[in-house]
């Protein structure tokens, strides 16, 4: 009996070493390394109890107040990931990592003069993966050699070490050039924030995809056939020729002109199934009519076989008239590897039957490859558009001061 009692006590002691989420073998740290690259100060002054929403110490002061919010997903981009810890730090509105000794979260400079300042914090995604950060918009470094940004680091409960993801950066920043966007690593998905405004608060959404574009990440996405950029990444602008629709006769970038609300990019390459294409186009046209300005749908045809510009233009124009389409744009490129239109940057596989990239604010919220126009799949897309049109969806763009 005594032996059983001792075993029970031992098991209870082991369980008490873990918190309720099995989260963290490491505890709060009060020491700083001289090399932040080798020893990240993720835990410096970290509180023991974290919530799903955090307000930075700067929020009560001067500067444009912002809310950064979204959902943390597993690597499939669809399954919410609960209890993930997020650590952020940023400059003040002047672009300086300011220190304040009287602030609880303050990080003093180490021996090399490095610091994350006092505008920093931690939060933990809730059971649905939701998170929210209330802070001020960081300023650009005085040198103006980088766009304004907020650093963000992730710690998953089953991983030993934290890892960084792409910074939060801001779409309206003149320093965030096209070349910079193309060079982004998209770690955890795109970090580009597109603000809407509610009263004086600017609101930006970002969904975080765990492990996406993280080297040596232990879990791999299991999609057997891949085509197109990943969920969580931004659509890269490209210029197809418009054979039918509002921009007929032009080479117009879908994302540049219609990227603010929802969009559906329906790509078909070397293996068109015209009966199914017609079914999809009628469905997308009806959805566009129902949702008005809040949805723009595009058909992008990239069949390399026997390509001729005039023939392709006539072929799609005839199709649009036959189906009596009023909202869907019918466009084409010579191939999905075409560099003149820059469609190649979106990584479409020309040999699959189709690729659907569904976006919101130019960011991919879902992707389907070889999707059949079954009643179940039509409902799936309708539901996705409904579910991602949240409380911020129809708000106006933030206005620069």
From TrEMBL:
* GO molecular function term, any single one: oxidoreductase activity, acting on single donors with incorporation of molecular oxygen, incorporation of two atoms of oxygen
SUPFAM superfamilies named among the record's database cross-references: Aromatic compound dioxygenase
Domain Intradiol ring-cleavage dioxygenases span(s) in chain numbering: 57-169
**Could you identify this protein by its name?**
Intradiol ring-cleavage dioxygenase
Traced from the root, the source organism's taxonomic lineage reads: Bacteria, Pseudomonadati, Bacteroidota, Flavobacteriia, Flavobacteriales
Q: List UniProt keywords, sorted A-Z.
A: Dioxygenase, Oxidoreductase
Q: Give the top-rank taxon of the lineage listed in the UniProt record for this protein.
A: Bacteria
Q: Which organism is it from?
A: Formosa maritima
Q: Which family does it belong to?
A: Belongs to the intradiol ring-cleavage dioxygenase family.
């Amino acid at each position: 009996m005594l032996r059983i009692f001792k075993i029970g006590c031992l098991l209870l002691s082991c369980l008490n070493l873990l918190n309720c989420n099995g989260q963290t073998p490491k505890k709060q740290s009060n020491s700083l390394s001289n090399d932040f690259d080798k020893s990240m100060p993720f835990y410096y002054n970290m509180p023991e109890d974290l919530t799903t929403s955090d307000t930075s110490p700067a929020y009560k002061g001067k500067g444009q107040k912002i809310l950064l919010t979204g959902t943390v997903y597993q690597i499939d981009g669809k399954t919410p990931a609960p209890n993930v810890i997020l650590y952020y730090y940023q400059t003040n509105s002047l672009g300086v990592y300011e220190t304040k000794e009287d602030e609880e979260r303050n990080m003093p400079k180490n021996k090399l003069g490095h610091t994350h300042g006092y505008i920093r914090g931690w939060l933990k995604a809730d059971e649905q993966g939701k998170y929210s950060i209330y802070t001020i918009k960081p300023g650009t470094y005085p040198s103006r050699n980088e766009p304004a940004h907020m650093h963000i680091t992730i710690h998953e409960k089953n991983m030993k070490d934290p890892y960084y993801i792409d910074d939060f950066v801001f779409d309206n920043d003149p320093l965030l050039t096209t070349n910079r966007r193309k060079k982004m690593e998209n770690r955890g998905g795109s970090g580009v924030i597109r603000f809407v405004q509610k009263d004086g608060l600017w609101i930006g959404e970002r969904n975080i995809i765990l492990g996406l574009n993280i080297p040596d990440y232990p879990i791999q996405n299991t999609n057997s056939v891949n085509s197109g950029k990943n969920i969580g990444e931004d659509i890269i602008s490209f210029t197809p020729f418009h054979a039918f629709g509002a921009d007929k006769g032009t080479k117009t970038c879908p994302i540049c002109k219609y990227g603010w609300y929802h969009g559906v990019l329906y790509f078909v390459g070397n293996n068109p199934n015209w009966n199914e294409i017609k079914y999809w186009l009628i469905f997308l046209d009806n959805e566009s009519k129902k949702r008005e300005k809040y949805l723009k749908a595009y058909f992008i045809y990239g069949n390399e076989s026997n390509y001729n510009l005039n023939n392709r233009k006539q072929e799609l124009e005839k199709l649009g008239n036959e189906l009596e389409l009023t909202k869907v744009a019918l466009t084409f490129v010579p191939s999905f590897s075409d560099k003149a239109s820059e469609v190649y940057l979106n990584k479409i596989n020309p040999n699959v039957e189709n690729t659907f990239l569904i976006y919101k604010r130019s960011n991919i919220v879902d992707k389907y490859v070889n999707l059949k126009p079954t009643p179940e799949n039509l409902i799936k897309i309708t539901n996705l558009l409904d579910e991602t049109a949240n409380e911020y969806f129809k708000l106006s763009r933030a206005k620069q001061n």
